[in-house]
Amino acid sequence: MKSTELRIGNYVYNFNETIYQIIDGEDIDDCDKHKCFQPIPLTPEWINTAFSAIEDNYGLFYFRRDGSNKSESGMDIVLTIKNCLVNDYWVWDCCIGGFENCIHLRYIEFVHQLQNLIYILTEDEKK
Asked: Which of 4, 55, 58, 113 could be 108's S-S partner, Cβ–Cβ 3.0 to 4.6 Å?
């Protein structure tokens, strides 16, 4: 894990393999010096609880910038997350829009990557 991947507020595993939240720049500097943090794999449980996403009947997760938990299309940003197989490896496909009109943004594997993506799209700290 590189320090350039981290922001203050990101969740990672610390050296004890317990969940730790990055609290300041020193934590980020320590990441390169001591290699003391590991990424947390993104799971449906993390998406539901830490990010307050809603899951539809098709296994898709939705986030809305306005904070509502509506899955229908609208004028606001809808971030759709779905699990998919890429090069024989399961990752989360992050898209803008609903299921049918989805524009691919990137594939992610870890909690801190989703935190960073949500921040970029909404400027909202998901902690």
From this structure: 113
